[in-house]
């Protein structure tokens, strides 16, 4: 095969591409890292690799996602990428790139963005990339496509003090008393003499030297046409700190903790973000969880503090926790430990703990050589992850037991493909594999730039490997270690776009009935009795059985008053076939349906005649169609298996589920066959929702026998 890639055109499917070029779908999926539902979701313009040379392997599979400063996807953009000694332009149409396959991860990647002035501007430079799959999300004002970042004119909605109340109400955690009682002691201020009853009912009063822009900034928030407008103003830019909108409620805690402990706000946010569990769904998705609790240890709160560590921090006079205990000398231990779930105290404690680890390492390593707070954040997190002693041994390369570090790596990432890749790169040396992984992990996880609104061209954030060299440790890069370059080189001239394939291969274009013989079920109905192999059938009962009771739709002859599919006669253990090329998404027992298979197919993989029936006769709107096979005695395929040969059975018919008494055709044994446009919701749904009549798709399916009509 001389052709290396295929560019997807309208109507192309992975099965059609494989069929056209003589390559199996499984190989195409593996070579292009296409898994799960992505099998049926090719994009027009997507590059499909048609083979992978034995001599060719890739260190990193990278995807780049673009978000604007409001964390909204940038759906149309042009990027220029420099990697593997080449330069290429790629267009983004749905906020995320297709897979970028990188052979030499140690050479890194430079990413340029085509700005509104039609010039390529450097927005990201990674000197080294992690091994395996990497999703890189870029969020920056540099990537502004159009419009203004200033507040738009509109009618007045509310003042900032009202917005603060809304934010407080949205916070899942009730405002703890410490925020009110210790407020006057923040940053070492003296307590203000106030009546205790008044203090308990009033919102906390900010102290003069906190410089809170929330307090000083009293501009109004406006809307555009009645819809709230995202305002990018000073309120959202304190200390050049960019937070996810759902974490804005913690902004002042971050800024105060940063000032109190000698960090900057973005560095503090990066450390807290690395420590925190996140809310995974709903309107608060991405918010740091103040009530997080480890199920196996005492670690809890936003920064996952162990009970012992929490007690140690309370003994340090520079911590808010210490000040709170001083104010409440009779505090019980149980109530003291519950303070871990106070977000203000937890954030402050997280930064105190970072300081403690750096102080311990500073007695063993030349920490004073690190001048960047962003670099200090990486070392602080390394010390948190592996402990000060373990970090020192990693930096000085003092670990010698390959088996010990191999086990340690397995604990972190398991024994799947990623583990195997790290071990292969390290020539099966567990020490080298763990050293490489921890560098990749921290460089990926502690990225201060993600929490900055304005990123200066000369900002310098080193890789962990480069920081280790600064600390007189051992580099693990395969090439000579390079520290980051403050000023990026000018962007090169755009490279010509790669030539695109003009071949349109379409879909799999195959179909077969689910059974070798297609006969709508006739027997086993008490409301329409028919005798098996009779010389003559009742015309009325035959019509009732084959045209109503066994068919999709509503019927008064069933207890449920409807039927969700077609029942096709099948002797027990008859071979059952995939009707088209596709993917198995369900292969197990399914309630009253018994042993069941759900086959997922792309509509474009169907022959034109079947596609037209779906679209025109059945009014099927979606691009993915599901075929359901029920009451099977045996399932011969596994979930996620790709079906390429529809001549091979995927199961055997039977009488599982609520068809247990149907042991022969005369007693009603059958294959229940359905067509749906959705799976997850329809699994528990009743009625005809999500379901379509399969009968028009079946070829030569009989509803008569022995000439009786």
From TrEMBL:
A Pfam family this chain is assigned to: LysM
Location of region: Disordered: 168-227, 284-303, 489-508
The LysM domain, residue ranges: 4-50
Bias (Polar residues) ranges: 291-301
InterPro entries with a match to the protein in the record: Cell_wall_metabolism_enzyme, Dup_hybrid_motif, LysM, LysM_dom_sf, Lysozyme-like_dom_sf
SUPFAM superfamilies the UniProt entry points to: Duplicated hybrid motif (SSF51261), LysM domain (SSF54106), Lysozyme-like (SSF53955)
Protein name per UniProt: LysM domain-containing protein
Lineage of the species this protein comes from: Bacteria, Pseudomonadati, Pseudomonadota, Gammaproteobacteria, Moraxellales
